Amino acid sequence: MTEVLTSSGVLGEIDKQAKHVASIANGMHNAKGYVGDAIVGGGSKPRAHGMVKTTDLHTKRSNAKHNTLLKALQGGG
């Protein structure tokens, strides 16, 4: 199961989705510092997951004020 959860196909799809959420967030509230990536977590059961994060203070503050990442996960609405 670990091989499936960390396979290149799974990583590629998660990366695609994380970048899509970052793209939606970058189109909102005039903050352009969101990036998305797929990563493999460690621990006893490693598996791939996505992360979208802020890269600068302006974007971090904008996200805190507007809940941009939450809205982006909901499709930008």
UniProtKB/TrEMBL annotation:
Domain of life: Bacteria
Annotated spans, Disordered: 45-67
Protein name: Phage protein
